Amino acid sequence: MANKAYKFRIYPNSEQKVLFAKTFGCVRFIYNRMLSDKIKYYEETKQKLNNTPAQYKSEFEWLKEVDSLALANAQMNLQKAYNNFFRSPKVGFPKFKSKHRNRRSYTTNNQKGSVAIENCCIKLPKIGFVKLKQHRNIPSDYRLKSVTINQTPSGKYYASVLFEYENQVQETELHSFLGLDFSMRELYKDSNGNEPKYPRYYRSAEKKLKREQGKLSKMQKGSKNRDKQRIKVAKLHEKVANQRRDFLHKRSRQIANAYDCVCIENLDMKVMSQCLNFGKSVADNGWGMFIIFLQYKLEESGKKLVKVDKYFASSQICNVCGYKNTATKNLNVRA
What we know:
The protein is of the alpha+beta class. The protein folds into two domains: about 1-165, no CATH class; about 175-335, no CATH class. The chain has helices at about 15-45, 70-85, 200-220, 225-260, 270-275, 280-285, 285-300, and strands at about 1-10, 105-110, 115-120, 120-125, 130-135, 145-150, 155-165, 175-185, 185-190, 260-265, 305-310.
């Protein structure tokens, strides 16, 4: 069995928006309250506390008004992050969710038809039928497992629906191969000497973003004009992200259709993005997102993505004669 997610935009009415906001708030509250109790209990007893949302419903009766599975998923996410910290402190301790800075989302599971897509609407527990823009048909053998509702900073609502299906992909015989080397200027350079003309969307919109964010910083907090300007800035960031995602989807699809096996260098993009010299360029070209898109597209076709160890001198060795040129360690001499 395999899983596949589809993302649809939804259009809730005014009453449903209130219910969504209440659910977002309750999920955030239960996460923070349970985390606070875990910390307090551990400081007192040096043991882990296994608490559940049901323990808080008698004290906070308004928690009963929202989907119980949304609260249960918040508990599972917290427990996973909490356990991961004790297994490996490098992961970092779970943080409290801020009302303003954190992503507004919640996840609920499908139980006996509680979540369904019918007549261009999606059925959600405690919410009802919400208008949905269905841009693709769902195969009849797909089984709906869960849905994640999220609201973007610009105010749009999306539903990410997870389906389960039988994976019957047959492995393809590997005949055509391609190697990709990361490039901050043009996303990558392949083994055939080609490189895509990456538009560098963030760099192109940087001046406009700087101007609009400057206006936002000077406005009075809590004012209506500041909220309007915040949405304007959020829409600009959203446009850049959508342009980048569209470009990466199209480029990864072209490669997945043309080649049976793709080899890439296994880079730590998080560390590279923190570099002062070229961190902004690394974040702009979206190499990590590109690899995710390329990998699942290849796997769906029975093809392979091979990740080469980052310490292998792939950029220094000639693919024809095998000569190793150590001078290419200097990033200034690379294409």
